[in-house]
Amino acid sequence: IMKILKLFITLSFLSLASCTSVRVNADYDKKANFESYKTYAYFKSGIDQAEISDLDKKRILYAIDDVMATKGFAKSETPDLLISIFTKEREVVDAYQNYGFGWGWGWGPGWGMGYSRAITTPEGTLFIDIIDAKTKELIWQGQGTGYLSSNTDKKEERIKEFVSKILEQYPPQQLKK
After folding, report:
1. Exposed e or buried b for every residue in 75-92, given b needs 16+ CB within 10 A?
2. How distant, in Å, are the alpha carbons of 26, 79, 97, 141 from that of 167?
3. Which of 87, 114, 150, 175 is deepest in the core (most CB within 10 A)?
4. In this structure, how many other beta carbons lie within 10 angstroms of the beta carbon of residue 40?
């Protein structure tokens, strides 16, 4: 019984840990000269197409502004870079089963209590696209995936976490030749 209980507790912690982390990926154009980019603006038509509320868009853009400022980038009317966002959302279903312990007598199956339940959690993916303003070509794309919060206070904190984790990857650490 203790082994089963320890396994259940371990799995519970692992599932909670997987809910809280943001999984990040990034890809970039290896021919782009990232050192030459110093200013940015938002790609309005791209931002307008993101299928999220205007409040969440603002939260994302404010978080991007904060991170870009810490990296030494400035907003500009004549930017080197254009930044756009794209979002996707899906429901993740986790099934939990508790087989319980029963009792009975004789041969064959006894009886007992057990249950199973499914928990759905909204999971979102935020893409941040960085485009060369002169060539209009995508030079970097970051993506973060994790659970979403509907609580307004936690939502803002969660968005900041998504953006900062994604932009940790920008600019890419290019190998010097």
Report:
1. eeeebbbbbbbbbeeeee
2. 9, 18, 38, 10
3. 87
4. 21
Helices (H), 21-145: 44-49, 54-70
What are all long-range contacts of 144-150, with beta carbons under 8 Å and residues at least 24 apart? 144/22, 144/23, 144/24, 144/25, 145/22, 145/23, 145/24, 146/19, 146/20, 146/21, 146/22, 146/23, 147/19, 147/20, 147/92, 147/121, 147/122, 147/123, 148/89, 148/122, 148/123, 148/124, 150/122
Neighbours of 25 (CB within 10 A): 13
CB–CB of 40/82 below 8 Å? yes
Residue whose entry in the numeric block shows the structure tokens 């307004």: 152
State the pTM of this model. Answer: 0.74
Question: Residue 26 has what DSSP assignment?
Answer: E
Output the CA–CA distances (angstroms, integers) from residue 66 to 41, 86, 106, 137, 147, in the order listed: 13, 19, 69, 24, 22
- The pLDDT of residue 60: 97
41, 133 Cβ separation under 8 angstroms: yes
Task: Give mean pLDDT in consecutive 10-residue pieces for the chain, a chain of 177 residues.
Answer: 44 44 96 96 95 94 98 98 93 63 51 62 91 98 91 89 97 70
